[in-house]
Amino acid sequence: MEIRGRDPCAEEDLLSKKMRKALESRKSRGLVRQLTLEQSSCLENDFGSNDYLGLARSEMLRGTASKILERYQCVNGSTGSRLVTGNSQLAEDVEELAAKFHNSESAVLFNSGFNANHGLLGCLASKDDAILWDERCHASSREGTRVTNSSHVKAFRHNDLDSLHKELTAALERVTGAVIIVVESLYSMDGDLVPLKRLFKRIEFGGRRVSVVIDEAHTVGLYGGNGSGYVCERGFENHPNLLARVVSLGKAFGCHGGFVLGSRLLRDYLLNYARPLIFSSALPKSSLATILGAYEAMDSTEIREKRARVFTLSEYLRSEIDASPVVRSLVMTPMGTTNICSLAVVGAEFCVWVADQLALKGFRVMAVRPPTVSPGTERIRITVHSHNVARSIRELVRCLEEIILTADDGAVLPSAAKL
Ligand SMILES: Cc1ncc(COP(=O)(O)O)c(C=O)c1O
To answer: Could you tell me which residue ranges the Aminotransferase class I/classII large domain spans (predicted)?
Structure first.
């Protein structure tokens, strides 16, 4: 087959011109994103991934998954969407186990946590319903609110129950239908937890018109004693205002996929209306077997110990940060109890530079920039895992302090420290 090369002198088509301009604009602001390969093979220095329990790299899980595949004797590809030819006993068993594990009436498996949020929020509301979302909710929830039929979609200030109360009062007056409130149990870019008890109390006045959706992407696997999540930990899984929980399997579970947990009615509804579920091939059996294996592992002594270790090491990270006035001054949200800590390193280019400097020393952290977070709130996000060690945490904080102190661009620091 003859492949004809592009004529370098030919004028670019309009869309190519637009794409180039958009990328150049991002580049000029230090915001362009590109793929990189993992540079450090030292697991102890992984402070960037969401593989909190090391399950993504677990030989044990790989072994369990292949035994499960043998047990179910199935081909790998799903061959179609769940509603066409892609359903299987394995998929149904995975959902049943997940529902039981999270103490939910039912679970529906999506191809990712992103799809679960997008599918759920995209199909729940009609024109006369409202959606109120915490301004720091993940892009997947926001995408869902972009395709909704709701005529009233508003953000409230992050974890601010007065702001939520105000928006809820306005929404109940404005629409005749239901009001859906969307929050996360642990905000992945800030590391703070939702004030669940106070939230449910504060929305009581809306009665049965108010339904809450909680994205548990970063708490499943870690919270709830056995990893069932923060909602279970606080005992709210049967709260009358809780409509659904969203689970991502790509974080502490070390797999891929997502669940919406809720009533059987909700499950039937999603199977009929959630477009990412209906119009996409289901997950392959290898993924399903890995998910089943990960759920089976959640109650094992090994994972219990790893879970406890994440919290002990997170505490250690906080004490190390506390002992360094320079690093402590960058902490964005008052240090809580979670395994996520964000440090204000303002200025996209500076933030990437700091992360690169840490990478040169073998540490993997995330430089988070707009549009993931709003301009002026760029940050270094540190996540703690069971495979970190006290020495690597100590070293990380020490290196960070040194990098910040010796940074050329002294102008960035004062504003960063003020945040
Ligand atoms: C809070 C939150 N919700 C949902 C998702 C999407 O989950 P997944 O990676 O499984 O698509 C993420 C992923 O980063 C997340 O952080």
So the answer is: 46-388
